[in-house]
């Protein structure tokens, strides 16, 4: 691909040389319009771009993980009244799986594979919402106290970008440089996504203080009226 640029408009992307070390040159590409400030794409793939994998495409992502309480209910259990009880939970938040654009099956598969690595756990891949979750829980209360019953998940949001390995510059007499460049011929190989992990449910008492970066910890913050 001597002397040619990416079909994407001009924007900045980091590159990897054939040796696998970061190249000092920067390739200009166009940034998509993003509300609320400039767009900073996820970094290029960590694997080297060389003659052996020229033309290969990889999707990279970043990920922000937030524990989210989807629905909850607060229950007071008096001494001597411990028993199994069905409780209707109140809707609190919604987690969804979606992308900012309609992506191809090839990009979509790579997108969620990369996002799972970035997040560190499995994600719901089909377009769906936690609004479909049941809002009733049956729990066996074995001790008196003030409880919060919750259902939740780990919400994940981030950006994704499609990169292609190819050679830049003339091939003769100056050899070109192999580097990862952002590649989006249809304008749908980049954007934002949201997803979530599987459903989590449980209960927390006033006396408990689970870590705040867990769904249980976020539920504990909603448990008011504790002594």
Give a description of the structure.
- A hairpin with an 8-residue loop joins strand 9 (145-168) and strand 10 (177-182).
- The chain is elongated and about 90 Å long.
- Strands 3, 4, 6, 7, 9, 10, 11 and 12 form an eight-stranded antiparallel beta sheet that branches.
- It is built from two helices and twelve strands; from the N terminus they run βββββββαβββββα.
- The protein is mostly beta strands.
Q: Main traits of this protein?
A:
eight-stranded antiparallel sheet, 12 strands, two-stranded antiparallel ribbon, mainly beta, 10% helix, 227 residues
> What fraction strand?
35-45%
Radius of gyration: 24 Å
Q: End-to-end span in angstroms? A: 70 Å
Query: Tally of extended strands?
Result: 12
Helix and strand layout, with pairings?
Layout: E1 10-13, E2 27-29, E3 57-61, E4 64-77, E5 84-88, E6 90-91, E7 98-99, H1 105-119, E8 136-140, E9 145-168, E10 177-182, E11 190-196, E12 200-205, H2 215-222
Antiparallel strand pairs: 1-2, 3-9, 4-6, 4-9, 5-8, 7-11, 9-10, 9-11, 9-12
Question: Summed up, what is this model?
Answer:
The chain has helices at 105-119, 215-222, and strands at residues 10-13, 27-29, 57-61, 64-77, 84-88, 90-91, 98-99, 136-140, 145-168, 177-182, 190-196, 200-205. With 227 residues, it is mainly beta.
């Amino acid at each position: 691909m001597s002397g040619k640029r990416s079909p994407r408009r001009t924007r900045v992307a980091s590159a990897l040389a054939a040796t696998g070390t970061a190249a000092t040159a920067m390739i200009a590409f166009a940034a998509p319009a993003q509300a609320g400030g400039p767009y900073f794409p996820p970094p290029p793939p960590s694997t080297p771009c060389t003659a052996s994998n020229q033309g290969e495409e990889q999707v990279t992502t970043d990920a922000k993980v937030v524990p989210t309480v989807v629905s909850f209910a607060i229950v007071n259990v008096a001494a001597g009244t411990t028993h199994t009880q069905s409780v209707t939970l109140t809707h609190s938040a919604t987690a969804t799986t979606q992308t900012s654009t309609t992506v191809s099956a090839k990009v979509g598969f790579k997108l969620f594979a990369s996002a799972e690595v970035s997040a560190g756990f499995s994600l719901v891949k089909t377009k769906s919402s936690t609004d479909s979750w049941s809002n009733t829980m049956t729990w066996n209360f074995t001790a008196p106290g003030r409880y919060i019953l919750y259902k939740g998940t780990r919400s994940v949001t981030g950006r994704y970008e499609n990169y292609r390995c190819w050679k830049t510059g003339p091939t003769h007499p100056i050899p070109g440089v192999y580097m990862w460049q952002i590649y989006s011929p249809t304008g749908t190989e980049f954007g934002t996504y949201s997803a979530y992990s599987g459903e989590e449910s449980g209960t927390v008492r006033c006396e408990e203080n689970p870590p705040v970066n867990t769904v249980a910890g976020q539920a504990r913050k909603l448990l008011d009226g504790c002594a």
